[in-house]
What does this fold into?
Amino acid sequence: MSRPTPRPSPTELPFYEACARGELTLQHCEPCDRFLFYPRTHCDHCHNPTLNWRRVSGKGTIVSYTVVRRAVSEAFTAPYVIALIDLVEGPRMMSQIVDTKPEALAVGQSVSVAFEAWSDDIKLPVFKLHGVLGK
It folds into this structure.
């Protein structure tokens, strides 16, 4: 059984292309100087339709997490950790925490981005405890 695979829209495509290169990029609104996530067609704060893609640090803090001990399908291997990450640039991102025992995690810990192949065509950002080298 295969995992559900994103099919990027034209608005989302630059995000996925950057992930394939091992870069985390977010849209940035120049007039209000805010980074945005999820990709969208206009700023959700000032409604400016001109958004630029910028590479970001990939560093953040765990805000919340859950340990999935019973996989939703055969395509996933449990246990795995899903977390809300506040990126230092501002946006909150939901992702997986990898290469760490669930018991070692705590809200407030620093994390850094890494990238994992989700399919033959898609890489997605995942996070590791800060200081743990990415794949």
